[in-house]
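Student: Hello, beginner here. Can you help me understand the protein record under this note? Any guidance would be welcome.
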Amino acid sequence: MGKGGLAMQTTEAVYIHIPFCLKKCNYCDFLSFAQPGQMAAYIDGLLTEMALAAERYPVQAKSIFIGGGTPSCLPDDLLEKLLQAVAQHFVTDGLQEYTIEANPGTVSLPKLRLMKQYSVNRLSFGVQSDRADHLQLLGRIHSFAQAEEAVQLAREAGFTNINLDLMYGLPGQTLEQWQQTLRHVLTLQPQHLSLYQLKIEEDTVMEQWLQQGVIEEFDDGLALELYRAGQTILAEHGYHQYEISNYALDGYSSIHNQVYWKTEPYLGLGLGACSWFRPLRWNNSFDMDDYLTQLQQGALPQQEPEQLTEREQMEEMVFMALRMNQGLQWEAFARRFGKRAEDIFAAALQRCKAQNWLAERADRVMLTEEGRVLGNLVFLEFME
């Protein structure tokens, strides 16, 4: 039994948060900070949390994802301590994908070999751009040459599944620059690419710049051109788009991300990490002192859970599934809820099909090309 006496579903996904960075990027609103003095105490706390959580929650991990922050900025001794604990509690023969996020400039061949030694089989590098001016604008602390070196070292260490994150819609960016960036990055031959449009978030350096008039809002029409350029160029190079922002060579779609998009259960560990076991969702404490104190007292550092209504779960399943190119499968919805999505959301489906935002097949409904571009506007149609 889990929280509130509710029976827990078995989860096949574990997320582990490492909040440390060498420097906070200008656009970042994630739970991250540059406080290396807390690393050792945090890893000790995380090991305690893993032991407690492994006892409480049924986990048969097919995917583990260590994200941040910048997990690769951990010193090798702390990284190995973490990887040993993950191996003890969560690595089994059923594990298919084990990802660590890394930034260029924070990896070495020994560090990468250490990851490989502990069953890590996928790396996700935050490259963001190949242009020095754009990297400086974003507040990144690496060069593209370091990104090239990181990918080369990863291959030398034996990694054959590498994702690269890129950002578009940067202030002042042109279509030609974005096309050049894509073609340049593709020379690294990654197995997977994530293309994210820059969104200026609250309480970031970029929000201050926007308010001060240092930068301007990016034009929506140009952002659409950049999005479509990404689709075209990656398709020309053999990558299939399987989700609004994600592209992969055959056989390299992210297993972990699909757990989120299919609203399957997942366990989140670490500062501020989120967990989802239907119908409950909860976060860990966002305060480092509180997080560590609770663990020292033998308690999991969890905030009060939110219990989603059946309607909220239905809505979430619909719009998360629609993010994927395969769309929402009628049978999957009926199996989970014992009801037909075609009936529950009949009006929304009709409105979206009339706008040519959705295409319906015998067994599913999916976003059209126009619907994929609009994204959130389509999803809002399904929410009360």
About this structure: Residues 310-380 form a domain with the Arc Repressor Mutant, subunit A fold (CATH 1.10.10.920).
